[in-house]
Structure formats: structure tokens, C-alpha cells
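Memo to structure team: turn this sequence into C-alpha cells by end of day. - J.P.
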Amino acid sequence: MEEYRNPIILGCVVAYMVMCIVMGIWAMRRTKSTKDFFMAGRHLGVMVTALAVFSSTLSGFGFVGGPGLVYSMGMSSLWMVIPVAIGYSCSFFLLGKRLRLFAELLDSVSLPDVVAARYGSESSRLLTAIAILLGVFGYLATQILAMSTVLEGILDRTGFQQFATPEFCIIVSCSVLVFYCVTGGIVASVYTDVIQGSIMVVAALFVFFACLAAVDGGLAGTATIIMNDDPEAIGPWGTLGMMGCLSWYFLFTLGGAGQPHIITKMMMNKKISDARSILPVSLGSYTIAALLWIGIGLTMRALVLSGQHPELASADDAAPAFLQAYVGPVLAGIVFAGLFAAIMSTADGFLNIGAAALVHDIPRSFGKKVFKRELMWARIFTVIIAVCAAFFALYSKEKGDMIALLGAFGWGAFAAALVPTVAIGFNWKRANALAVNTAMVAGITIIFSLKLYGLAHEDFAIPYNIDAGAIALLVSLLLFFGISLAMPQQKIDPEIEAVMDI
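Reply from structure team:
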């Protein structure tokens, strides 16, 4: 079977892409309105919602970018992986029940709908929609870049080197993604999450055991090889350093409650009481799947250092290279298909909230319903956003941005804008529109200014490797609390206040 390794892997990926097309057509028949397109009609069960939440977190960011980050920085990446797990509990504690209650009360189809009702402010709706849209481009580019990186490696090894170019792979990836998203909306995404989430939980265990077997001595042997080369890499802070790691801890612990592609899924389940069951399933699934993130990164670094594997052209090649060379062909094919499923469903989530911002939220913030056929325009704007994100992904590829760091930028943008607005403001009555609007503007301005300045000045670096998203989130929180406390408490709609009292 080993001689058919590459055809088997390519066959699994092609079969998955065909499944995406079928899934999109099936979901299109269930998508009759914008509520179906953006909120899946709020008819999802516990397992579907739980796997959708977990899958939206890892996706291409974790399954491709994560191992690349471990390969490049060593144990620094743990300060991203572990805080996300802690962040699950924070997110569900702060929003699991309350967000679903708001969605039921307001019959909302997007997160900005709920924000506008909570603060009684259309300007808050507008700024939330803009913040989501800006964050979508960074995070969606991460998914497209991850998908093209995996596809490029597969084509290169299966004799299609002439097609193994970033441009071709981004075009193919984006084309399948657009068809899947335009036809099925969020319905296609969440049901694909069930398939890919189940696959990745099981496959992660098998891949982790393959990691242990790939290096003599297992984890101990891997740690020894890395330590002999660079003791810092295997130390508690990795090569990023203490301040950089602690900034990730701050950002990824609190930031989970500000990720719209994750928290909007808390608005989609059938029953409000389901939140208590969704959390343990999501958290347990994430914990198992994260073994793939850590195991592959450390193992590939040890294999390259020991001379058992050639030097990687890019750190982001760690996961594709390991699966191609050190995992059985059938398992590798299944994992690659699962990777594409993770990337595709998460990208669909981003396209979905981005389209909602353009079609539903921004027009309503000006007091009008501009688009008479919202469902049709939602699909049109889905295509436009995907094309723009594809160009951003190609530009990031040329600049040499790592997938995980590009994902961290998107995560930081969302966190800086939405953690004060949603996670805290939905639980604290003293929060007001001026405070959240100022916090959103400041957070987004800071993170994008630092990113753009860094692109223009390649030698620019924030002292002590502190993450730009952590700085933006900290400033955003300080402004939010400062303004809220300095102003008299504003009157809240009685129905909204009743939900906050529960």
C-alpha cells in the first residue's frame, strides 16, 4: 500500500472536496432565509453545536499553523494552546446562557443585532460590524493560506509539480470554498464540523502515537534532541521569551470570549440549557485534538535536527511533511481530509459573519434595510469577501508570514474589539455605548497600526516580543472600564435588564 501513498492521500482530499460540493447543495435546500443562512435557524443539537465550537477554534490555525509554530519556537506555543482551553470555560461562563437568551428574546440573526439592543445604540452596531469585517480578513486569509499550503504539498508529492504553486492552490482552494459557502451558508459549516470534529479527535490520537514512534525514545528522545540544539526551545518559555508568552496567555485566555465565529454558535442551539452540556464536549474534543498541534511540531523539529528528515522550506510545512512521510497512507489521507474540513467549515463561519456585517448590520445601523433580497446579497458578498481574503493570503505568503502568527493577528483584532463589548458588557450593567465604542475604535486602530507599521518597516519589533493583540486588548479594556466608571449608569431596556439579571 505504501507505493500508493500519494494517490491515496490525493484521493481522500478530492473525495472530501466532492463531499463539500454535495454538502453545499444539500444545505442550500435547507437554507430558505437569512436566519437559516446566518444562524442555522437556531435548531442545532448539543453534539452539533459542541463540535462546531471546537472545530471553529482549531481549523487551519491549529492544525497547520500550530505545528509550524511549535517547530519554529518550541514550547512557546503552549502559551497559546493551553490558554485557549481555559478560555473555553471563560467564554461559556460569561456568554453560554446569556447570549442564547438574548438571541431568543430579540430574534437576532447576528452578533451586532444583540450588541445594538444591549446598548441601545446603532453606532455600536456599526462599529461591531466593522470590527468583525476587519478581523475576518486576517483570520479568513489564515484559513485560505493553510488550505493552499496543504494542497501545494500534496500536489508536489503526487507528480503535479507544475500545479504546486501558491497562486494555483489559492485559486482552487478559494473556488471550492466559495461554492460551499455560497450554497450552504452556516448550515453547511456546522454539519461539516460534526464530520471533521469527529475525524480529528480520533485521528489526533493515532497521529500522536505516530509522533512518539517516529523518534527513538519517544517524547524523552525528542526533548533530548531539541535541548542539545537549543535549550531555550524546550524550556517553559520557548524561544519567544517570558513576556511574549505571558502576552499570549492574556490574549488567548480572555480573547476566546471575543471570537465571533465561536460565540455566535452559542446562539444557534435548540435549548438554552444545552450550554452546560456543550462545554465539556467542546473542551474535551479540543484537548485531544491539540495533541496533534504539539506532537507534530516537536517531532518534526527533532527529526530535522537529528538529520532523519530534510530541512523544511517553511515552518508551516511541518504538519503536511510529517503526515506525508511518517503516518500510514490511509490515516494520512483521512487526516488531510479532516484538515480541509476544519479549514473549510471555519472559513465558512468567517465568510458568514462577514457577509452578515455587510448585508444585514451596516445597513441597519443607518436605519434602513438597503438590500431587499438579503439572502441573494449575502451570497454575493460572500464571494467578494472570499476573493479579497485570497489576495490578502497571497500577499501574506509573499511576505513570509507564518500561518499561526497571521491567525494570532485575527484573534487579537476580534479580542480587542469584542471582549469588552460582549463578554464583559453583557454581564455588567454599568457598561455604556460610549465606553464600548471608544474601546472598539482604540483596539482595532492599535492592532492594525502596529501590523501595518511592521509591514512597512521589516526591522520593527515590539519590545520583549509582546503580542500586538495583547497590547490592543489591554488598552481597550482600560478605556472601557475607565469611561464606564466615570459616567453615570445608563438606563437599560427592561427586557434586556431582565436577561442580565438571570
